[in-house]
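For reproducibility, we list the full input for the uridine-diphosphate-N-acetylglucosamine complex.
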Amino acid sequence: MDKIAIVGGERLVGEIRISGAKNSAIKLMAASLLTDEPVRLTNMPRLADTRFLGRLLGRLGTEVVETDGPNGGQTILTTPEILSTIAPYDLVRQMRASFNVLGPLLARAGQAKVSLPGGCAIGARPVDLHLQALEALGARIELNEGYVYAQAPRGLRGARIEFPFVSVGATEHALLAAVLARGETVLTGAAREPEIVDLALCLTAMGARIEGAGSATIRIVGVERLSGATHAVAPDRIETGTYALAAAMAGGEVRLTNTRADIIESLLVKMEEAGVEVDRGADGLTVRRNGGRLKAVEVTTDPYPGFATDLQAQFMALMTLADGESVVRETIFENRFMHAPELARLGADIVVNGGEARVRGVANLEAAPVMATDLRASVGLVIAALAARGETVVDRVYHLDRGFERLEEKLSACGARVRRISDAGEEA
Ligand code: UD1
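The corresponding predicted structure, in tokenized form, follows.
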């Protein structure tokens, strides 16, 4: 298993090009199942998760062609016909978002058998809201031996679906199915994340009729068929926020390009409160910190436009060196503080109590071997290591590879001392 070694203490100075959003890309790839024409996605990140979903789509009948240009990758997905409607356990288990093929399969082929994703490191993560939405659209759903059997032999029909709380995945799933349903669907209590807007934009380019994406109420009028389209994947807000926090942690000045400041506004406000300088520009932002200790500030995770749970670990890393005590509250996932004991190995002072972590800033962090536990937690450890004295080795970086494209390269280009130690022990 690969490791990443980071020698802390270098300031970061330079420019980082932000990739297309992982969490958009995988839903857009699933959307390509809805048409027999080619869907061309540009600004595609090349990640373990997108490669993985490509393999699953290949089994379902999609031809996946990847090319790389100077401005990111391009993937063309064409599914002339659905060859299989089964997403087996061994594939869904490895990446939860594979579950999102259920809706498109059902909408296009009238049936699907998709494995339940099961739990994951950050909590139980049920899919009840996904299934309720599909049932409301007229699907017959049965659960048997860990599989969802879904059927809609005479097609799906529009419905009113009220989400009792915000779920990004369930909102996306309802959208993916409702675009081909007969009649009108109204989603209330919908997620407002930029990834929902991105999915709606792509579906609209494919001929879907959608209004209100990005607000809590989304209206969809089903169409008979969708066509191909070309769509540029939206910038990754989590990657944007992560490098903004890396610059704040290490000190220096980093310009983030090919992204937008507004998609991480709730983070930027907190960073400024803590004493980091931020310039919001037309095609990105610049983050600057020159000397001076940061102030402890409190954050509470919330659905968008609130503070993203996917930036919580990275923000906690920043707070480990701030002056005073910060309280970090996690309201989205029940078990999302696994980075806290790992940060403590670097000398951080963190006390976790239920959904709340108290972080008392220390003067210095010291390098230590640490272990990545999930995607966002692992990049939190990388951020802490950028400011720790000595060489920190982060184990199990396959978690990082799922969601961060060329992380070592992007950080090294700004002066960080980061290297990958591959399986065999040699450095790559
Ligand atoms: C997506 C993101 C993930 C991010 C999360 C919250 C992808 C691939 N992943 O995950 O990175 O951390 O949004 O911003 O896009 N829930 C239920 N029943 C359901 C669905 C969800 O109880 O049927 C619960 C979850 O357990 C969680 C909460 O609702 O506590 C929010 O989850 P949700 O917004 O659905 O997250 P994901 O779409 O899985």
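The mean pLDDT is 94. The CA atoms of residues 30 and 160 lie 23 Å apart. Both points were considered when choosing residues for closer inspection.
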